[in-house]
Amino acid sequence: MRVICLLCVGVACIALGGCRGKNAAPVTSNSSVPSTASATPKKTGVASQTKTHTSLPLQVPKRLTGPGGKNSIAVLTWHRISERPDQYTVTPPSKFAEELAFLHEEGANVMRLQDAVELIKAGKPLPERAVSLGFDDGFKSCYTEVFPLLKQYNWPATLYIYPDWISSGSGALTWAELHEMQKSGLVDVQSHTMGHPDLVRMKPKKGMNYAQRLRHELFDSKKTIEAKMGRPVTQLAYPYGFYNKHIMQQAQAAGYESAWTVNAGPFSSHFIRGETWMSLPRYLIYRNTTIDRFSRYAFGKPLDVSRAYPAPNGTTTNSTTSISARIDGDVDPKTLQMRLAVIQKVDAKYNPKTRVFSYKPMEELREGTWTVSISGRDKAGRTKTAAWAFVVKKPVPTAIPETETP
Ligand SMILES: [Zn+2]
Predict the structure, then answer these.
(1) How far is the CA of 62 from the centre of ligand 1 (A)?
(2) 3-state class of 308 per DSSP?
(3) The domain 308-392 is classified under which CATH number: 2.60.40.1220, 2.30.30.40, 3.40.47.10, 3.90.1170.30?
(4) Centroid of ligand 1 to alpha carbon of 194 (angstroms)
(5) How far apart are CA 317 and CA 315, in angstroms?
(6) How far, in Å, from the CA of 240 to the mean position of ligand 1?
(7) Does domain 19-26+47-302 have CATH number 3.20.20.370?
(8) HSE of 117 in the Cβ direction (CA atoms, 13 Å)?
(9) What are the pLDDT digits (tens) for 198-249?
(10) Which of 68, 293, 329, 373 qualifies as a cystine partner to 387, CB 3.0-4.6 A?
């Protein structure tokens, strides 16, 4: 268990801190301590923000069981494509080309992500082997390395950009390049906030308190990109994958229809209870992602689980909490695996009577966001995966009442 504690900080940072902007500090050993939701009034939408201050419940997705209910799409996400892989998020061009060629050879149906969102919302089926391509941050390589291949395959992609960086230097895309790519009909431009901060832990800046800054990051990025690109911005990708309930509510209030995490699982209408449209899963592709893993990501299916615990997007103050889910799907129990922070395999046990697959940490989980991913293979040998995230937070110490002194 010590191994987990040593690895979890770094690994969780890999898992959760996948994307990094030019100026963002490296995500290293600073433990993740999401701030509690601040007590700012919730807005009910851009249009009505000046008059209403009522709280807005997060939309709970409809769990579909009919046609389309079990369909899924793998949202594959890269960052920079470069010959100089100086960070784990940088993919060499030859590897990237190999990954796209693999998708092509394996008959992937590469879809525009917004189209998949709309099909799932409407309860309609997705094509088999549906895959979506995404690129975070707005690196120049989206234009120099990615765009030529998109044109070659005639495949769509979604770019998540943060306006503060666009047209700011040689490593960044320019607005003109974004326009050219959008004009091709292959590229959607969506929001990755205004300045790419860690939304959970960011400090007040430029005279803005936390609530004002969160509003700036979520609302103003959407408005800015819409004004620059002339198209609606409906999606948000959380920088580093960090979010909490308050941020999800504010993202929804800002008018986003979907918000994307880095919880490693397929996106399907098969929501685990507690998941929302503001906490959708994606797979980050790193320079060391093997083609085997890439294949499991691209063509894996959703695993049917229930009673996921700690609940998706929930917070626990028990740092040695059991982590579990009931396995409802058709999967060989012997092939079940649980991973924390995407890659750290843990020794979880399956109970055939209750069908619960659970893991009890022997040492404390650090404070912060934890992602859980459970995978297994069905009789046909297909990989199935379920993923969610929860937050560990230290309990607030109870104040010891002072005894009155005479
Ligand atoms: Zn990023």
Answers:
(1) 29
(2) strand
(3) 2.60.40.1220
(4) 11
(5) 7
(6) 6
(7) yes
(8) 19
(9) 999 898 888 899 999 999 999 999 999 999 999 999 999 999 999 998 999 9
(10) 373
